[in-house]
């Protein structure tokens, strides 16, 4: 959510006139994240988030916005896109595709424990089940095809040890494909900062702009690699109790299969590889922006090395 495209108050007011959401009161840039330009918006009728899409292909944008609308209608606390006066979710601002969505209440949690991981697991399962009736389709744009392209781009920036880790993981992942795992729309980026809590419950799931159709279990793996660590800053091994809380709560809503149990260690590594590559790419090949926030790729290098070296990954009994 970095700011790459500057929007003035006058430009915003003119654009907002195409919506029936009241008069503009405040426009505040959001300086976290790395993909799109985002602003918090306050009008005389409510609070919203304005997103200007910086590099997502225009053909993909309806998938994300309509998925958010679908999930919101089915009781999932996701942002609801606001249609403009021409009944479109997507318009244009300063030469970029732009959308306005509702702003959800709550705050993210820096250090989740077992209760928060269990809450996440149940929400994730409900979200997957709600997505079964969504008709849109988008192949995961950060899947294995993208891994190979990104690896070629970042490899010159890596030392010999990191090149070996990258090459070996790409070789390992090429041995596995899981066409028989349960699939559907996934969030694919549900890190701690993309979930909001109020009163111990998840009040919002935000930033669906990496969503795609893929294995549901991959969503669980992405979450586990961020939520279920022993210590987010120092010890990036999986905490068995947190991981089991996440998976058991998920399983109670959407039972996991024997095939998913077998795939779990591989998908934990796949999730780590995907985010190591994307962070390497954004760190070494950044785009210019007014406010740019790039994550340290070493966190996911460590996570990938630990998952690759682990004898067994925590699972539910």
Commentary on this structure:
With 317 residues, this protein is of the alpha+beta class. The chain has two domains: 9-102, Phosphorylase Kinase, domain 1 (2-Layer Sandwich); 114-309, Alpha-Beta Complex (Aminoglycoside 3'-phosphotransferase, Chain: A, domain 2), CATH 3.90.1200. It has helices spanning 9-16, 61-73, 114-131, 144-154, 160-174, 216-227, 240-253, 258-284, 298-309, and strands spanning 24-29, 37-43, 46-52, 91-93, 96-102, 183-186, 195-198, 201-205, 212-215, 229-231, 235-238. A five-stranded antiparallel β-sheet has the order 1-2-3-5-4, covered by helices on one side. It has a two-stranded antiparallel ribbon with strand order 6-9. Helix 4 (144-154) packs parallel to helix 8 (258-284) and helix 8 runs antiparallel to helix 9 (298-309). The chain is globular and about 60 Å long.
Q: Quick gist of this model?
A:
41% of the residues lie in helices and 17% in strands. The protein has helices at 9-16, 61-73, 114-131, 144-154, 160-174, 216-227, 240-253, 258-284, 298-309; strands at residues 24-29, 37-43, 46-52, 91-93, 96-102, 183-186, 195-198, 201-205, 212-215, 229-231, 235-238.
Which structural traits does this protein have?
single chain; 317 residues; Phosphorylase Kinase, domain 1; Aminoglycoside 3'-phosphotransferase, Chain: A, domain 2; 2 domains; 5-stranded antiparallel β-sheet; two-stranded antiparallel sheet; globular
């Amino acid at each position: 959510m970095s700011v790459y495209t500057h929007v003035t108050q006058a430009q915003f007011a003119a654009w907002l006139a195409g919506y029936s959401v009241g008069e503009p009161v405040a426009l505040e840039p959001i300086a976290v994240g790395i993909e799109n330009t985002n602003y918090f918006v306050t009008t005389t009728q409510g609070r919203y988030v304005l997103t200007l899409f910086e590099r997502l292909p225009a053909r993909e944008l309806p998938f994300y916005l309509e998925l958010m609308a679908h999930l919101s209608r089915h009781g999932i606390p996701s942002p609801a896109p606001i249609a403009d006066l021409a009944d479109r979710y997507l318009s244009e601002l300063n030469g970029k595709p732009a959308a306005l969505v509702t702003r959800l209440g709550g705050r993210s949690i820096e250090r989740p424990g077992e209760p928060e991981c269990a809450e996440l697991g149940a929400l994730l399962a409900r979200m997957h089940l709600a997505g079964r009736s969504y008709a849109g389709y988008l192949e995961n744009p950060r899947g294995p095809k993208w891994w190979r392209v990104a690896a070629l781009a970042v490899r010159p920036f890596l030392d010999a040890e990191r090149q070996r880790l990258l090459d070996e993981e790409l070789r390992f992942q090429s041995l596995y494909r899981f066409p028989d795992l349960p699939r559907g729309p996934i969030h694919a980026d549900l890190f701690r900062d993309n979930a909001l809590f109020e009163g111990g419950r998840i009040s919002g799931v935000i930033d669906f702009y990496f969503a795609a159709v893929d294995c549901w279990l991959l969503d669980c793996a992405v979450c586990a690699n961020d939520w279920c660590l022993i210590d987010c800053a120092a010890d990036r091994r999986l905490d068995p109790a947190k991981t089991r809380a996440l998976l058991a709560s998920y399983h109670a809503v959407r039972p996991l299969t024997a095939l998913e149990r077998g795939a779990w260690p591989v998908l934990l590594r796949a999730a780590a590889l995907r985010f190591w590559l994307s962070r390497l790419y954004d760190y070494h090949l950044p785009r210019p922006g007014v406010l740019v926030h790039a994550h340290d790729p070493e966190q996911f290098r460590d996570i990938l090395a630990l998952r690759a070296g682990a004898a067994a990954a925590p699972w539910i009994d």
